[in-house]
């Protein structure tokens, strides 16, 4: 599953990714090559200069740049041991969990008609009510947590933090009325570090994601994504189709805000993954509905291998992650963010204010680079001597 969420209100001539549920570049996510040659040369800069310029995507763990650093003998021994013992067990157990949950979804949707968005070809089982939906959601949350445990995330620290409210006067908060405290957010907003983010959010709230349309056709995963209520986007879609999807997402956010039984949306407004120390500019698609949002910050402390999916290939990342005996995840949950009237009128202001809050509370550095720069960095690391000109066009 990938998570590369583009600004759903902007034109789509620039194409990216995130995990299969709209993630970023990756072997299991995007079947499109990371870079297609054109005529624009990659700047010839030293590794130090590149790391300074593209700091948000730099790996700083023991495995080095792109996971190809020279490892000490002890680390090589641990890797070899894990490859022949831990990895096979995790793969078998992980696949068993996936198949088991697929069967649950198949059985409990067997005689159900999926919800369809006729204009956009969207199809999901997330709007299915009753006890069947309850079984699908509760089993999904439980098995997602089990999957995280299998991957080495034995303990997940969760912190509920009330930020400093100096930026918002008490008078302003009082003016919004006490009724807001009981309002449901329309979307969960999270920073994007790894495909593991999706598993965590599934175990926590089982939300709907934005995914590539091809995800819905993947064996096993396709049905599960429909039970999640994923909104599918076509990377190569026309502008009119893309705007239509933006409308679907906006409507789904409003629906979740107004109807407690509706599936809540989960969006990664950065549009790509980072190393976890930086927060990229937010796309405004998640903020067009003018509904409250629930900010969640994810951090992956590490000693040897960083679970962050930044400048490392998908296959290499999965193998190293499976070889890691123990992985760590820390979660910071912030209070629901209620937009002011000014923020409702200006989605970009709304997005920037939420981003600033998350950066401050998560102790992250705000960066002004994005997916285009990430591809440039990857190309430079791979020694590519050319880049597609589209990489030099910025998203709004």
UniProtKB/TrEMBL annotation:
<keyword id="KW-0812">Transmembrane</keyword>
<feature type="transmembrane region" description="Helical">
    <location>
        <begin position="77"/>
        <end position="104"/>
    </location>
</feature>
<keyword id="KW-0443">Lipid metabolism</keyword>
<dbReference type="InterPro" id="IPR045252">
    <property type="entry name" value="LPCAT1-like"/>
</dbReference>
<keyword id="KW-0472">Membrane</keyword>
<protein>
    <recommendedName>
        <fullName>Phospholipid/glycerol acyltransferase domain-containing protein</fullName>
    </recommendedName>
</protein>
<dbReference type="InterPro" id="IPR002123">
    <property type="entry name" value="Plipid/glycerol_acylTrfase"/>
</dbReference>
<feature type="compositionally biased region" description="Basic and acidic residues">
    <location>
        <begin position="17"/>
        <end position="35"/>
    </location>
</feature>
<feature type="domain" description="Phospholipid/glycerol acyltransferase">
    <location>
        <begin position="186"/>
        <end position="301"/>
    </location>
</feature>
<dbReference type="GO" id="GO:0016020">
    <property type="term" value="C:membrane"/>
</dbReference>
<dbReference type="GO" id="GO:0071618">
    <property type="term" value="F:lysophosphatidylethanolamine acyltransferase activity"/>
</dbReference>
<keyword id="KW-0012">Acyltransferase</keyword>
<feature type="region of interest" description="Disordered">
    <location>
        <begin position="1"/>
        <end position="41"/>
    </location>
</feature>
<keyword id="KW-0444">Lipid biosynthesis</keyword>
<keyword id="KW-1133">Transmembrane helix</keyword>
<dbReference type="GO" id="GO:0008654">
    <property type="term" value="P:phospholipid biosynthetic process"/>
</dbReference>
<keyword id="KW-1208">Phospholipid metabolism</keyword>
<dbReference type="GO" id="GO:0008374">
    <property type="term" value="F:O-acyltransferase activity"/>
</dbReference>
<dbReference type="Pfam" id="PF01553">
    <property type="entry name" value="Acyltransferase"/>
</dbReference>
<keyword id="KW-0594">Phospholipid biosynthesis</keyword>
<dbReference type="GO" id="GO:0005783">
    <property type="term" value="C:endoplasmic reticulum"/>
</dbReference>
<comment type="similarity">
    <text>Belongs to the 1-acyl-sn-glycerol-3-phosphate acyltransferase family.</text>
</comment>
<keyword id="KW-0808">Transferase</keyword>
<comment type="pathway">
    <text>Lipid metabolism.</text>
</comment>
